Sequence to fold (395 residues):
Amino acid sequence: MAKIVVLGGSFGGLTAALELKRLLGKKADITVVSEDDRFVFLPSLPWLIMGWRKPEDITLKVSDILKPKNIDFIHEPAKQIDPDASKVTTSSKQLAYDYLVISTGPHLAFDEIPGLGPDKGYTACTFTLDHAVKTGATWRSVLENPGPLVLGSSQMVSCFGPSYELAFEMDAELRRRKMRHKVPILYLTSEPYLGHMGVGGLGNSKTFMEHEFADRDIKPLVSQAIQEVAPGEIRLKDGNKIPFKLAMIAPPFKGVPAVMPLGNPRGFIPVDKNYRHTKHKNIFAIGVAIAIAPPEATPVPTGVPKTGFMTVKMAKTAAATIVSDVIGKTPPLADELGVVCLMDMGNTAAFMKAYPVLPPRQSSYMKKAIWAKWLKIGFEKYFLYKMKHGLGNWP
Fold:
């Protein structure tokens, strides 16, 4: 029986664990390790901030998903990985493995910029449920006592979508309340141009974002690096200072501490096309944890995003490859990664698709349409149903 340990209980970790159990059955003893016992539908966190969702609307209990599938769950963080001994150390246990799947997501490196972050700094964040709840409270205070908003992404970020969504959503909500004229919105980003998103743009995303920002009177400030944040003020490396009532700034991304020794200088793990570690052949990494080189050098460093759509694809490929190893078959040929995104814009939405994710591309498409908003709402319900019932093999 193959002992398989999966680190992470979100999109990638749960998909990989469910697929491995479905395909291997009693041939595998599978354990999921995660410091969070909640599966959170992360794409809906901007809606939670806006007050359009509650935590219970978008949250499932990880143990409830895994137990019916006879997958063990350890509610502890991974502390250390010994690749030579094939062991993982958690807060209280040491787990031996034949195969390890790393889907730990990012370490949010707020500490790299003084004053950044909601815990020890002065800015808000949308990447975790707890941070989103706190950001929602700050947003409500702006509605009661208006002031300037600053939204965007700092240097070394590799996830830009939620910041764009919140800029559009907050603009739409302020207009609905007939108070947009009381709240200046500035979009601050490390990207070299609007719509770059760490991947050299998606189709016409540059002109699309520029036109939408102009129509909505959202002021962009691109190619910016943040020096530090003080109460009510962002200080840029070029010397400019930006006041704010609410600043929602995506922080730099790194690999989590437990996987740092397996990765590059920022802790992102090098993998082959089947997401197998380039050195340790019984270790796989998926999602934000993997290293993908940016398509181009930018004046301010940016990272390549790994969306939920991409992560699920990676998880299925990694699981199929492990299954092939266990049963002695040839591993599958991995497809090029593509990306599909649904960006909410408050009163409408945009559908974005690109294949492959990095240029040059075979195809790319971007379209603003109300049907994209309904598609995003429908996908939220579909994916939560899929995970609640442990249907990791569903598209």
In short: The first strand starts at residue 2 and ends at 7. The two ends are 28 Å apart (CA to CA).
